[in-house]
Amino acid sequence: MKTKIKSGDLVQVTAGDDASPKAVKVLEVLDGKKVLVEGVNRVYKHVKKGHPKSPGGGRLSIEMPIAISNVLLYCNACGRGVRVGVKYLDDGSKVRFCKKCSTDLGVVSPAKAQYAKK
């Protein structure tokens, strides 16, 4: 399943306990259905002594994935999360764009001759 959200994108969380109008960074996209977002959905994992991240044992605070439907891609021009569309430019490259203000939000794939305008 292809998603319009990639790792490294800025998103706005729209649902759940961590919903807020601020933009946060996507760390990883998991199977196209879930995303790991920086600082969102943090939980404590209890670990025994000898764990690589916590040799003395204790509680680790880690991020857990959230559903991809609970985030919107952040548009800097609009200043909020927006719906996203995909279109081909004249040179044949595929880009994401904001449905509200039509601003380009990044290239999805490089130029291909078969999609170029003639």
Structure description:
By secondary structure, the protein is mainly β. The protein has no helices and eleven strands. The strands form three sheets. A six-stranded antiparallel sheet has the order 6-3-2-1-7-8, with no helix packed on it. A three-stranded antiparallel sheet has the order 9-10-11, with no helix packed on it. Strand 2 and strand 3 form a beta hairpin. The chain is elongated. The protein starts with 9 loop residues before the first strand and ends in a 9-residue tail after the last strand. The model has no long low-confidence stretch (mean pLDDT 91).
Jot down its keywords.
single chain, 118 residues, mainly beta, six-stranded antiparallel beta sheet, 11 strands, 0% helix, elongated
SSE layout and pairings?
Layout: E1 10-13, E2 23-30, E3 34-37, E4 42-47, E5 58-63, E6 66-67, E7 71-75, E8 80-82, E9 84-88, E10 94-98, E11 104-109
Antiparallel strand pairs: 1-2, 1-7, 2-3, 3-6, 4-5, 7-8, 9-10, 10-11
Q: Could you give the distance between the termini?
A: 31 Å
Q: State the strand order across the main sheet.
A: 6-3-2-1-7-8
Q: H/E series, N to C?
A: EEEEEEEEEEE
Overall geometry comes to: elongated
Number of helices: 0
Overall number of strands: 11
Share of helical residues: under 10%
Given as residue ranges, the uncertain stretches (5+ residues, pLDDT < 50) are: none
By secondary-structure content and strand pairing, the structural class works out as mainly beta
If you compute it from the alpha carbons, what radius of gyration comes out, rounded to the nearest whole angstrom? 18 Å
β-strand percent reads over 45%
Mean pLDDT: 91
Tell me about the biggest sheet? 6 strands, antiparallel
